[in-house]
Amino acid sequence: MKAAANFLFTLSLTPGFTVAKFDANLSVDETSSTASSPTRGLLPLLFVGNAAMYALYSGVGGVLLPLQIEQIDPANKVANLGLVAGLAAAFATVFNPVAGALSDRSGRRNPWILAGGIGAIAAMALLGAVHTVLLVAIAWCVGQAVVNVYQAAITSVVPDRVPLERRGTASAAVGLGVPLGSVIGVVLASLVADHYSAGYLALGLLVAVAAVIFTAGAPEQRMAPKKAVPLRDQAAAFLSVLREHDFRWAFIGRALLVLGYFCVVGYQLYILQDHIRLPEGMKPATAVAILTPISAVGMTLSTIVGGVLSDRLDRRKPFVAISSLLAAAALLIPVFSPTWGGMLAFSALNGVAFGCFMAVDTALVTMVLPKAEDAARDMGVLNIASAGPQILGPFVASAVVSLAGYSPLFILGGLLSVLGALAVAPIRSVR
């Protein structure tokens, strides 16, 4: 849901393919000696699959959904957007780890990726066809549930198939999907802003096509399926992983930064409407379509540099901490300069910060997973750190904006980013 993008240069790895399991407690040398090489072309396919997903998230959340809600009830748009986005994020939080556990149990990822991708067409068609705030909330909840089935499975491909020492590069391939996907989604949504139902359908079709391409191009070997586990035991297992020291702090750090990020980004269209002095004649939807590519360029560069350098230096924590602090600095720019120029600077700097964070933090996270055989379930739990703040974020943001305006919202986002940077310090198993 939520959510950052990572390409095609030398991202293909060694020829040949087998599904391999990786234990986060193994050393790099141990992992290298036991892991099989992933299929050639896997990383570009991960890039495509994630780009399509983030195109949908960005196009819907950044443009189409706010416009649709504003058209239905302009006077209460801030509160209504917070309600709809928060409820939908709750569905995402539930479906992501559940779908991850189901794909673990089945021993497969590709069928879940394909099912989620095809289901996105129907969900987006439904969302574009409704005309009340209640029905929009229900339809977007369905959309979040479907796309999170897709997300949970494709997120687990990296710990399943990529050797530990290449996780930074693989995470860059995943992360680069965020800036490109964001640009595609926002630009596409802005072009059809007056006909949002067509925009919804186009974004759903994009995810479906990506799912077909990925599953056709990256065949998998079935892993050993797991026995059915009672729901109570599954819930206990989801919570038990948070007792792991390093995993818990990785969870907290991501949750704080993502909360700060989505408190602001989720309201970007309304911020441009009500807070920023735009150039004469520029529409807010057009402004979003300009700002997103600027952010994407910074995100792309920092994702590549951050992912590759973190591999070469064998360091993750410094990159995560610096990018979090940089995000905090970026969020203060519109407070002191609520102008078009200030937003341009904010978008560029925030893109650099968030791209580096997502690339390196994803690699860090795969290294603190307690058990390789539970990778999808545990990654699903960690994805709550992305989805959970999107439940709380809209409610917090709408309350802050309603009571105090947009400037305090930026300040809150910056504070949360600083706390996110501090949270990586206690992690022991990753440098």
From TrEMBL:
One Pfam family from the record: MFS_1
Domain Major facilitator superfamily (MFS) profile: 42-431
Key word Transmembrane helix present: yes
Membrane topology, record value: Multi-pass membrane protein
Residues that span the membrane, as ranges: 42-67, 79-100, 112-142, 170-192, 198-218, 251-272, 284-307, 319-337, 343-369, 381-403, 409-427
InterPro entries registered for this protein in UniProt: MFS (IPR011701), MFS_dom (IPR020846), MFS_trans_sf (IPR036259)
Chief location bin: membrane
One cellular-component annotation, GO: plasma membrane
Gene Ontology molecular function, alphabetical: transmembrane transporter activity
Compartment list: Cell membrane
Keywords assigned: Membrane, Transmembrane, Transmembrane helix
Protein name: Putative MFS family arabinose efflux permease
